Amino acid sequence: MMTHDPASLRTTVRRQDRAVQDDAWIAALLTQASVAYLAMAHAEQPFINSNLFVYDPTRAAIYFHTARDGRTRTTIEANPRVCLSVGEMGRLLPAATALEFSVEYAGVTVFGTAHVVIDAEEAAYGLQLLLDKYFPHMHPGQDYRPIMAQELAYTSVYRIDIEEWSGKRKTASGDPEGAFFYPYRGE
């Protein structure tokens, strides 16, 4: 299971009242989040990409894919250390003073090592997990042709081995006056 070392600078949440130590909650948010933001660095240049992704609890890993050649692959091959973030926003919480305005939120940050998946069987596995997540109502061999080996030559599949993760959330109790979901639609 992932670590929550309070001494780790990577996973320490400054606002401990909002820190989530519950691995099941963290895994659930990783499972339901639609988009992840992947941070990488090549030499002194940081990059961040938004990606569709899937969390695989059986391997404590995250899979995603990109074009066969490009910045993501080049960056990961040069430096496989990555950070991935997912989040969701709840209600906006107005207040009497500007400083007290707030928002409900939930987020997970993952630290790990990314690998370009070379093994064709694992690459097909990762791609199928992605299809199953985003198209759960469709089935290979029934609604579409299953992944073919030659198709794997056109994509790069990645696996992030999760080393540490942390969760953070803020929720307001009850029904705060004036709370609303973004975007504001007026009355």
Descriptive overview:
The protein has 187 residues and is of the alpha+beta class. It has a single domain (16-168), classed as Roll (Pnp Oxidase, Chain A). The protein has helices spanning 23-32, 71-78, 120-134, and strands at 19-20, 36-42, 45-51, 54-56, 61-67, 81-93, 102-116, 155-170, 180-181. Strands 1, 2, 3, 4, 5, 6, 7, 8 and 9 form a nine-stranded antiparallel sheet that branches. The model has no long low-confidence stretch (mean pLDDT 92).
Précis, in short:
By secondary structure, this protein is an alpha+beta fold. Helices cover 18% and strands 39% of the residues.
Under CATH, the homologous superfamily reads: Electron Transport, Fmn-binding Protein, Chain A
- Percentage beta strand: 35-45%
CATH topology: Pnp Oxidase, Chain A
Shape: globular
Helix content: 10-25%
* Uncertain residue ranges: none
The level 1 CATH classification is: Mainly Beta
The helix/strand class is alpha+beta
Based on CA atoms alone, the radius of gyration comes out at 19 Å
One letter per element, helices H and strands E, the order comes to EHEEEEHEEHEE
Estimate nothing, just give the exact number of structural domains. Answer: 1
- Total number of β-strand segments? 9
What's the mean pLDDT score?
92
Most strands sheet: 9 strands, antiparallel
First-last Cα distance: 47 Å
**CATH architecture designation:** Roll
- Give the helix tally: 3
Can you lay out the helices and strands and say which pair or pack?
Blueprint: E1 19-20, H1 23-32, E2 36-42, E3 45-51, E4 54-56, E5 61-67, H2 71-78, E6 81-93, E7 102-116, H3 120-134, E8 155-170, E9 180-181
Antiparallel strand pairs: 1-8, 2-3, 2-6, 4-5, 5-8, 6-7, 6-9, 7-8
InterPro entries: Pyridox_Oxase-rel (IPR024747), Split_barrel_FMN-bd (IPR012349)
Pfam families: Pyridox_ox_2 (PF12900)
Protein name: Pyridoxamine 5'-phosphate oxidase-related FMN-binding protein
